[in-house]
Amino acid sequence: MSHRVPMQPQRVDAPLTQSATFLILSVTESPGAISTVRSTLASIDGLAKNVAIRDLGASFACTVGIGSDVWDRVTGLPRPAELHPFTAVKGGVHTAVSTPGDLLFHIRSERRDLCFEFERQLMDLLGDAVAVVDETVGFRYFDVRDLLGFVDGTANPVGPDVPASILVAEEDEAAAGGSYVVVQKYVHDLKAWHALPAEQQEAIIGRTKLDNVELDDAVSGQQSHKTLATIEDENGDEHDILRDNMPFGSPGSGEFGTYFIGYSRRLWVIERMLQRMFVGSPPGLHDRLLDFSKPLTGTTFFVPSSSVLASLDSD
Ligand code: HEM
């Protein structure tokens, strides 16, 4: 089946890089804030080009997400069908918290300085129209491992499966070419994690640690992370999402984290993953990864097509 995308998408499918900045902003009540945000978003392509050209080998890309609470005011466009604020998921032991955020900038490059420079110019343009909610700088750790020591991102879709998994299409014409994105900033208890034997860690993740081989699903009882995060619909079709997780942290202050970011054509797929992880499947048997990983944030955005962003300066 062909996947018709009438709009030019943002660079949602840009590759994983050595460095990434995750910037979450709220829009302030200052006079003219909305129009400043609109004109900045409309010119974001130009801003990205200005920075990217300074080292074309450094794979610079920025994607912009817009939150549910400001969608109407910032875009004036019909709402993407599934867009709503992140719904907290309360499991028996762990909770996926819901935290504020109106705008997400996912800034990527092989070079930290390009991410920095883009963010500097962006913040200059936005001025007092925004307030920073969270700014996290992530880095690549060896062969795309998370700080738990596992290769992270293996099961991501590749090639033609990427647009089919992440871009809204004919099911919601007004939102076509866009993508839902969910972010959660996790911090790990590395001391406790390192106290586990590697075999137990592997059973929790569902893959071997050194050579990243997928383990079989458990026949019953406690399921691994990769099993809980595998979603099939009622027809038995599996729905993938695109993850660009990055490690972050500071050994000096004892902070070790994973910034989770998942793009999807269907928000319900990520929501169902969170349900299965936090509540458990069967309920009660939550994802054991959460015993060592606590989400400090949880926010949902819609990443409209590039064409939609460019049109925001029309007033
Ligand atoms: C798989 C780590 C949170 C969704 C994996 C894998 C690792 C991992 C190591 C196996 C390799 C791979 O396929 O990438 C983590 C860490 C997290 C985290 C460290 C945070 C502390 C999440 C969350 C979601 C999620 C919050 C979704 C809401 C997935 C999916 C897979 C996966 C869809 C692939 C499953 C498959 O094999 O099809 N994760 N993850 N992860 N994770 Fe996570």
What does this entry look like structurally?
The chain has 315 residues and is α+β, with helices and mostly antiparallel strands. It has one domain. Strands 7, 8, 9, 10, 11 and 12 form a six-stranded antiparallel β-sheet that branches. Strands 2-5-1-6 form a four-stranded antiparallel β-sheet. Strands 3-4 form a two-stranded antiparallel sheet. Helix 2 packs antiparallel against helix 4. It is globular, with a radius of gyration of 19 Å. 43% of the residues are buried. The structure holds protoporphyrin IX containing FE (HEM). One of its GO terms (cellular component) is cytosol. GO terms for molecular function: heme binding; metal ion binding; peroxidase activity. Belongs to the DyP-type peroxidase family. Keywords: Iron, Metal-binding, Oxidoreductase, Peroxidase.
